[in-house]
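Thread: sanity check for a docking pose with magnesium ion

Original post by kr_44:
Hi all, I'm comparing my docking run against an independent structure prediction. Below are the sequence and the ligand SMILES. Could someone generate the full complex and paste the C-alpha cells? I mainly care about where the ligand ends up relative to the chain.
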Amino acid sequence: MANAKKKILLAGLDNAGKTSLVEIVQNKMVDTVTIQPTKGISRKEAQILGESISVHDMGGQAMYRRQYLQRPIIYGETDAVVFVIDLQDRARYDEAVGYFDSTLVILSQLNPLPKVFILLSKYDGDYFTEFQQKDTPLRTELDELLVKLQQAAVEHDMSIIDAFRTSIFNEWSVYAAFFEIWSSIVTRLNDIQAYLEHVIADIPDTQIAILLDGSGNLLAYQLTESASVPLDALVEIAGKTITFMLEWKKNKINRVAKEQDFVSLKIEGQSVLIQKLEADKDDYYLVMLIKSVQLKSAQDILQKLGFSLSIFLSIQEK
Ligand SMILES: Nc1nc2c(ncn2[C@@H]2O[C@H](COP(=O)(O)OP(=O)(O)OP(=O)(O)O)[C@@H](O)[C@H]2O)c(=O)[nH]1
Ligand SMILES: [Mg+2]
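Reply from moderator J.T.:
Ran it for you. Here is the predicted complex with magnesium ion included:
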C-alpha cells in the first residue's frame, strides 16, 4: 500500500493563527506568549492511519506571500489547502480574500485539484460573545466574507469544501476541523467513521463516542446532545479527553501492566470511559459517555465495541 505522501498547505495572512493550529493538532501546548511569526515555510509531519502527511505552514508576512506567488512550484502536488482567516481582524478581510484569490490562481492549475477548506480562526473572546447575539454586524460581515471567498472559488472553477470556526481555546473545534481535512485525503477514515456509527447505533443513550489513535488524532466520532448534556458541554469534555489520553499515555501506559486498559474519569461532572485498544501493535483509544449506564455494564459495552473496532482496524490496515 505504497501511497504517495500527502501534502497539505496552510496559508493565510500573517498572524492568522496557522502555526497555533498546527501546534494543537500536534498535541503541543500553544504558548500564546512566545509564538513567533513563521519565517518562510515550516514543514511538519503528521501520520494518519499509517499515511504520512506533510503539513506546510506558510508564514504569511507580505514579503513571503509575494515570494510564494512568484514560485508556483511550491504549490505543486497539493492534496488539500487550508486557508486560515483571523475572524477578529475584520479590517483585513478584504486583504485575506485578495490573497485567497491569488492563491487559487495557482492552485486551479493543478491536476487533480486540491481540496479547499477555510478555517475562521480566533472564534473566542469578545468576538465570540458578540457573535452569539443575533443581528450583529459581525454576522453580516462574516456572511459577506464567505460570499466573497465563494465567488473567488467559483471564478477559478474550484469549490470550498467547508468552512469552520475555530479557537485555540476550544481544542475540539480544531480537532474536529482537522478531522474533516484528514478525511478528505485519507479515505479510509470515512469507512472507520461509518463503522463507528454503525456499532454505536446499537447502544442507545450514547452521548459521546470517539476513536483516537495513539497520537491523539481523531479517527471517528459522534457527539449526540441531550437536555442534560448540551453540545457545548460535550465539546468541552471531548476536548479534555484527548488531553487526558495523551497524559495517560505519557505517564502511565508505558509503566503500568496491560490490565490497565480501561479508565473511568469524571470530566465536567460526567463519567467518561476510555478503553485502550490494540490493532496490529498500534494503540487506539475508544472514548465514550453513555447516559444512565452502570459502570460495570459500561465497561462490558466498551470492551465489546473495542474488540470489534480492533478487528475492523486490523483488517483496514491490510
Ligand atoms: N484569541 C486567539 N488568538 C489566537 C488564536 N490562534 C492564534 N492566536 C494568536 O494569534 C497570534 C498569531 O498566531 P500564529 O499562529 O503565530 O499566526 P500565523 O498565522 O502562524 O502567523 P505567521 O506565521 O506570521 O503567518 C499569536 O499571538 C497567537 O497566540 C485563537 O484561536 N484565538
Ligand atoms: Mg506561523
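The radius of gyration is 21 Å. Hope that helps with the comparison, let us know if your pose agrees.
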